[in-house]
Amino acid sequence: MSSIEQIDKSALPRHVAIVMDGNGRWAKSRGKDRIFGHTEGINSVRAVVEAARELGLSYLTLYVFSTENWNRPQKEVNALMRLMMETIDRETGDLIKNGVRGLVVGDLDRLDKDIQDKIQQFMQNTAQGKELNLVLALSYSSRWEILEAVKSIAKSLSEGKINEQDLDENYFSKYLCTANVPDPDLLIRTGGEIRISNFMLWQAAYAELYFTETAWPEFRKEAFFKAIIEYQSRERRFGKTSEQLTKEEIE
Question: Catalytic positions, please?
Answer without folding.
Answer: 21, 69
